[in-house]
Amino acid sequence: MPESHLFTIENFYHFAKERKLMAAQCDNCGTLLVPPRPVCTNCLSKNLEWIKLKPKGKLLTYTVIHVASPRFQSLAPYAVGIVKLEDGPNLPGMIKGIEPENIKVGMDVLVDFDTNIPAEWPMWPRYFFRPS
Amino acid sequence: MTGKPLVSIVSAGLSKFGKMQGLYGRELFAQAAKEAFDRCPNLDPKKTVKALFVGHMGESYEHQGHTGAASANWAGLLPVPAMRTEAACASSGVALRCGVLAVLSGLYDVVMVGGVEKMTHRSTAEVTEFLAMASDFPFEQWHGITFPGLYALMATAHMHKYGTTEEQMAMVAVKNHGNGVLNPKAHMQKEITLEQALSSRVIAWPLKLFDCSLITDGASCLILTKPELANKFTDTPVHIIGSGHACDTIGLYERKELTTLNAGKLAGQEAYKMAKTTPNDIDVAEVHDCFTIAEIIAYEDLNFCKPGDGGKLVEEGITHIKGEIPVNTSGGLKSKGHPVGATGTAQAYEIYLQLTDQAEKRQVEDAEIGLSHNVGGSGATATVHIYKRG
Ligand SMILES: CC(C)(COP(=O)(O)OP(=O)(O)OC[C@H]1O[C@@H](n2cnc3c(N)ncnc32)[C@H](O)[C@@H]1OP(=O)(O)O)[C@@H](O)C(=O)NCCC(=O)NCCS
Ligand SMILES: [Zn+2]
User: Fold this and answer.
1) Residues A90 and A119 in one domain
2) How far is ligand 2, taken at its centre, from the CA of residue A52, in Å?
3) d(CA A31, ligand 2 centre) in Å
């Protein structure tokens, strides 16, 4: 298991397995880093700490994908969007649990977790969005 | 007074764009290089060309990396130092930038820059996966977001913020297909109607088939030299007077704004400043229309109009081949085609033809100053170059 104090993408998904949406927060400038990274890209400080984000936000934009890559072909058409989390940062992902024609820019969504571990590399569990 | 020439283009070459069955990428590059050599009989390529920069996006398509040496080999340029530049769909815009830097450095008097991609032998699903590699893996690819998907996210945001319509996007497609008909090297030479574009099948809503660029095979190149040497090789050089290059976050989601490409804006500002020109000076432009919304955003990022007015610009015919600022006279990525690694220098090739009166049926009369705008990924890289008739 990766060392959980490292501010890596691997650890972001490690927390997702535990249904936690985590960011790295810079102690120096306060920037919330999603995805987390080893050095604050705003001020270059290494003084970071994990902080749990509220799993909710507003949909900034979305699309419905009909032509997909082989891995996702069987799911098409499926909706994906970019969500502005209540805590500030943006997160992209799939939108589930709503008919595509009912999706609206600006709608409130919750971040949910599919804790199934995919068999293929990098074996990260996927979070997704659903209407709140 | 425009800025002083940085380097001069003395020749250029372009393979036929399209489904080039049975041809390997390096063979397409050799065709482009040969055209450039033949166009410039006063230049002995074996003696004169001192380095090669080749844009190439993906080794997955042909199971072939190490494209610098392979391209130099097939072009007949060995043993010149050759290198591949990779910046997704801006790979050869970056090759051009590197060529400008290399000549300006004083190390080389003459270099070739170009690009190549061979894509059509792969299935659309495979190409979709390979192209997506230019986006963020952990948060975009891993969640099923495709390239059309990324630009669709921008399109939805642009429609929501500014009221841009699907009709306006379709007008970009109709315009560029119209121009492609005039270009014998274009992948598709087919007029389309607004109705056809609007009723075509959905690829990533709101983007439909005719909002997307083509999956294409092709190669392109230019020969660059110092301005003071240009007339040794040709009477009709084209000078590069501005060069801009900037980067942005690899993931679209990390950007503050989803309706503009900051790298495109910054590259444009750098190039305009160096060239001492303004958008009003541009007589002809090739912009990165990988999707119709991308052309609309390019108008805004390059200051051809205010943010949000890009849709109106195409609707009013301003960017039509007979309009005030003809954009994508070649047919653009939409109709000429988009062999991703070859696109940046293929845009420069079109501007070179326009500024040397060789654009035949699509010649823009009295074109003096041209611009090319090349974007990689969802905007993580952009290059802008400004050209002047020599
Ligand atoms: C849009 C896209 C998915 C269509 O691929 P497809 O569904 O496999 O389509 P096909 O190859 O089966 O072609 C079907 C027909 O549509 C035409 N066609 C394919 N793509 C087209 C396009 N983008 N525009 C117009 N016509 C197109 C083909 O010529 C063919 O016509 P024909 O039957 O008369 O020969 C594909 O062209 C694509 O992915 N384009 C975007 C490429 C891209 O993302 N580039 C990088 C940008 S950053
Ligand atoms: Zn910081």
Assistant:
1) yes
2) 17
3) 5
- Flag if A62 and B156 touch (Cβ within 8 Å): yes
- Four-residue CA torsion sign, B134, B138, B141, B145: negative
Residue A37 and residue A22 share a domain:
yes
Mean pLDDT for chain B overall: 98
A2-32: string of b/e by CB count within 10 Å (b at 16+)?
eeeeebbbbbbbbbbeeeebbbbbbeeeebb
Q: For residue A77, what is the nearest residue in chain B, using CA coordinates?
A: B204
Domain count, chain B: 1
Spacing, Cα B174 to ligand 1 middle (Å): 15
pTM above threshold 0.90: yes
pLDDT classification of A1: cutoffs 50, 70, 90 = very low
CB of A71 within 8 Å of any CB in chain B? yes
From chain B, the residues in CB contact with A12 under 8 A are: 138
Range of the domain at A116: 56-131
Same domain, A61 and A101: yes
Which ligand 1 atom minimizes the distance to the CA of B127? 39
Q: What is the pLDDT of residues B212-225, one digit of tens each?
A: 999 999 999 999 99
Residue A100's pLDDT is: 96
Q: What's the pLDDT at B343?
A: 98
Tens of pLDDT, residue by residue over B28-71, are: 999 999 999 999 999 999 999 999 999 999 999 999 999 999 99
> Cβ–Cβ of A92/B205 closer than 8 Å?
no
- From the CA of B65, how many Å to the nearest CA of chain A? 22
Domain that holds residue B87: 7-123+213-389
ipTM of the complex: 0.97
Q: Searching chain B, which residue's CA lies closest to the CA of residue A32?
A: B254
Chain-chain contact of B128 with A69 (C-beta, under 8 angstroms): yes
What's the one-letter identity of residue B63?
Answer: H
